[in-house]
Amino acid sequence: MTTKPNTLLSSIALILFFVVLIAVIIGAGVFVMLSSRQAEPESVVVIVVQDTPTSRFPTLPPLWTNTPTLTLTPTRAPTLTRTPLTPSRTPSVTPTLTPSLTFTPSPTPTITLTPTLVVATQPPAAANGYVPPLPPNASRHAREIYARGLAAGNNPHAFSKVGDCHSTFPNFLGEYDTPNMYNLSAQYDYLRATIIQFKGSFAHESMVASNGDTLDAMLDPKWANPNVCKSGETPMLDPKWANPNVCKSGETPLECEVRTHKPSIMFVSLGTNEFLYTSDHYESQMRRLIYYLLDHGVVPIIATKADNREFTNYLNPINARLAKEYEVPFWDFWSAVQSLPNHGLAENYIHLSYSTRIFYFDDPAALQLGWTIRNLTGLQALDAVWRGVRQ
User: Fold this and answer.
1) What predicted TM-score, i.e. pTM, was given to this entire model?
2) What is the dihedral of CA 239, 243, 244, 248, to 10 degrees?
3) Which residues of 173-183 are buried (b: 16+ CB within 10 A; e: fewer)?
4) Is 156 left (phi over 0), alpha (psi -120 to 50) or beta?
5) How does pLDDT run across 257-294, given as a tens digit for each residue?
6) I want to staple 344 with a disulfide (CB 3.0 to 4.6 A). Which of 227, 246, 259, 337 is the partner?
7) In CATH, which superfamily holds the domain spanning 140-389?
8) What whole-number distance in Å separates Cα of residue 154 and Cα of residue 148?
9) Rounded CA Rg of the chain
């Protein structure tokens, strides 16, 4: 009876021992498995931003680590750099405005004629280097006209002007009658004798030199002044333009001017307002004017103009040709201004460039203006002709 209980107890103890052993083994396995899972981190994918223009989102292989703590350090910080855009292409087409009518302010006359029977002396050049063209010459025919005019009562101390706004008082020669209004400078002091000779004529307001004057008006008696002009006298050649307070009934302004002022020399400077004339009509009217002056013993000084208002420059060559044909003095004013800024013209390419010092030949800036050169070369022309006709 005692042996069976011991054996039973031994069996139960052995069973419990194996149960405990199995439990311990199982527990140890579970513990090991749990410990292994806690040490394994979750997988982490690290995206490294690279500074490359070819891929917006570069992909790298996943980074695995058995370290419990993961520190991410970017290998390169992205850098944004702003670069201004620079045009690299030039437009292949450049807009170009091509006017159908090109205005040329610097024409070249096709005819350049100067009477050469008597050679005038070249005046000295100005200090600023400006060298005016030779003054006009007085031919034998001009001397004969002058002598005949003096015999008929023309005044050797009087000259007059036929022309438009470029021949009016005071801008053209007018200030030489006022001593403190001009300065000849040392270079041109030789002209003082001519100023003394014609004192009083510089400030004279000619009846055939006014703004807008044309040949047709000057040759029509209906423009003459009835208070001065005779009946039938023709402005310049048209009587209706004559001053009625000075001219006799029918006189033209030209006839009235010659009769009342009795000039021995007369500037003829036309063409700016005749830009719509045909060449034949302009030449015909110029011949009428020149013939009248020659017939009354007045020596004309025929001038060219600075502008090219007619666009084809057909008027200046006519003036040059007529001066040669009639053997009268020719003042080439066009050539005198070609070296000036804008060829001596204002912005409208009609009027001459101007300042308040157009009679000051000691002023280099003034000598770059059309009006200054007109007053200088005009006085030189008058001086050369006056000295020439007395030979």
Assistant:
1) 0.65
2) -60
3) bbbbbeeeebe
4) alpha
5) 999 999 999 999 999 999 999 999 999 999 999 999 99
6) 337
7) SGNH hydrolase (3.40.50.1110)
8) 9
9) 53
